[in-house]
Design a protein that fits this description.
The complex is a heterodimer of chains A (119) and B (116).
Chain A lengths: L2 E3 L4 E5 L4 E3 L2 E3 L5 E8 L6 E7 L6 E3 L2 E6 L4 E6 L8 E9 L11 E2 L3 E6 L1
Chain B lengths: L4 E3 L2 E4 L5 E6 L6 E8 L3 E9 L2 E4 L8 E7 L2 E6 L8 E8 L10 E2 L3 E5 L1
Parallel strand pairs in B: 2-11
Antiparallel strand pairs in B: 1-3, 3-8, 4-5, 4-9, 5-6, 7-8, 9-10, 9-11
Classes of the chains: A mainly beta (119), B mainly beta (116).
């Protein structure tokens, strides 16, 4: 069974601080995908990134960066110089790889981390 | 700007009543998901469809929930009879289902259901 753990339920920071959201996953699959989604106060979830299990390169997109470490089964998300608009619930998610018999569309989400960025 | 559209946005009903939630996926997306979000359980997958065929509905209480896709532009989630424990936000999401799927799901704004 797949499992995603986001140990931080809530984080509060002051604008311009860097913040890291932790994500630890469990899976028996040899190929899998990891995701981060953002849920702003408006409610709909917004896709941020997908990583393949066979690609451990870190990724940076503007103020966002992701650190994937297979050895520790972690896929952490860092926001640099946080802004008030970053306030949202952030979800880490996991799905099986593309050769797993057709169920690779099924995402298992963590419980989410509520990030509050104060001015 | 293509979006997933869900109706109703809010629904308050009494226990025992039938509730139907509707979703219009983004045109051209062939994979549709229903998720339920509660404070206690987080986001739970209820059912999903590919090319209108149900692939997995194991997350859904079968005795009272049903999900269908009458056509490619409409997905429905029905609860009959509803119970207070069904109170949650129900999300519909759609995406391109293929082996090279990017993982990008497009979510609707959700239907907030309150069962009294």
């Amino acid at each position: 069974a797949q499992k995603v753990t986001q140990a931080q339920t809530e984080i509060s920071v002051v604008e311009k601080e860097d913040v890291t959201l932790d994500c630890v996953y469990e899976t028996r699959d040899t190929t899998y995908y990891l995701f981060w989604y953002k849920q702003p106060p408006s409610g709909e979830l917004v896709f941020l990134i997908r990583r393949n299990s066979f690609d451990e390169q870190n990724e940076i997109s503007g103020r966002y960066s992701w650190n994937f470490q297979k050895s520790t089964s972690s896929f952490n998300f860092t926001i640099t110089a946080s802004q008030v608009v970053d306030s949202a619930v952030y979800f880490c998610a996991l799905s099986e790889g593309p050769y797993s018999g057709g169920s690779n569309y099924k995402l298992t989400f963590g419980k989410g981390t509520l990030l509050t960025v104060n001015p | 700007d293509a979006r997933v559209t869900q109706t109703p946005r809010h629904k308050v009903t009494e226990m025992g009543q039938e509730v139907t939630m509707r979703c219009q996926p983004i045109l051209g997306h062939n994979t549709v998901f229903w998720y339920r979000q509660t404070m206690m359980q987080g986001l739970e997958l209820l059912a999903y469809f590919r090319n209108r065929a149900p692939l997995d509905d194991s997350g859904m209480p079968k005795d009272r929930f049903s999900a269908e896709m009458p056509d490619a532009t409409l997905a429905t989630l029905k609860i009959q009879p509803s119970e207070p424990r069904d109170s949650a936000v129900y999300f519909c999401a759609s995406g391109h289902g293929s082996i090279w799927w990017t993982g990008e799901l497009f979510f609707g704004e959700g239907s907030r259901l309150t069962v009294l």
